[in-house]
Amino acid sequence: MVLPLALTMGEPAGIGGEIALKAWLRRGDGVPLFYAIDDPDRLVALAGRLGWDVPVRAIVAPGDAAAVFGAAMPVVPVGGRVRAAPGKPNQADAALVLRSIDVAVADAREGRAAAVVTNPINKEALYRAGFRHPGHTEHLAELAGIAEGAVMMLACPELRVVPVTIHLALREAIAALSVAKIVHAGRIAEAALKRDFGIAKPRLAVAGLNPHAGEGGSLGREDLDLVAPAVAELRAAGIDATGPLAADTMFHAAARRGYDAALCMYHDQALIPLKTIDFDGGVNVTLGLPFIRTSPDHGTGFDIAGTGTARPDSLIAALRLAAEMAARRSRP
Predict the structure, then answer these.
(1) Which of 22, 25, 31, 330 has the fewest beta carbons under 10 Å from its own?
(2) pLDDT grade, residue 7 (50/70/90)?
């Protein structure tokens, strides 16, 4: 039996509902079986507002999704009424946003869902409700009890990138960088490329922190003192890692053919090339969890919420990648 994917509500004032409805409308184009954890009434109202013919049907359990999916969008009720309007967040919805994530994770961990696919959240609203994490990645790691920390990957057909430090100011990211963190990210990435992407012998390209990978120390010693020793440790562990490499020459087409994932030292070093190459189709993948989690690689889109113009490409890519990863994990 093929298990469905659990799709979280995300920020209800954003575009998550619209792209979920659009993804269901494209179910005949290879969009895998999924169910939403949401307020069914708000999805009915949203579809009506936009003039889309999307029947919405509440289901009791994920196992009911398959029988419903062909004719209606299956929704496990999140347990409350959403108060936000498109583009206008409501603080009262924060508990429902977090409950949707918690239910999806429980479904995946207990074998009711094949994977978790998360719609974008509004962290500012969640912080006011007591949310303690910089983003989904860190929250999911805590739910999973991952002591060493999960690792973020951004993926599209042409490129995979793994930032060693994530949601930190640049000054804080540099201060937080260490040999141990680089090695941890490299080990988790290599294992995921084998298990979830079907790459027998993954190749990692490791970016230097400074321009031109430090120019032998003349542009900063971090590449000599942190990145190079981490690459040596990864190689000693049998991982095909190369670096530190000058980041400004790592991401053109010919260079990308030489590796399976790029290990980057900070957030923008990883995300700028990926979003430049495939802005609409990038997928956020959390590595190192005991369950699969993907997400569209964009934000809440408050400025266009409720207009029907949001593109579902990244969400559809996230659903497809989650299903592919789940299929690989289920093979004997």
Answers:
(1) 330
(2) very high
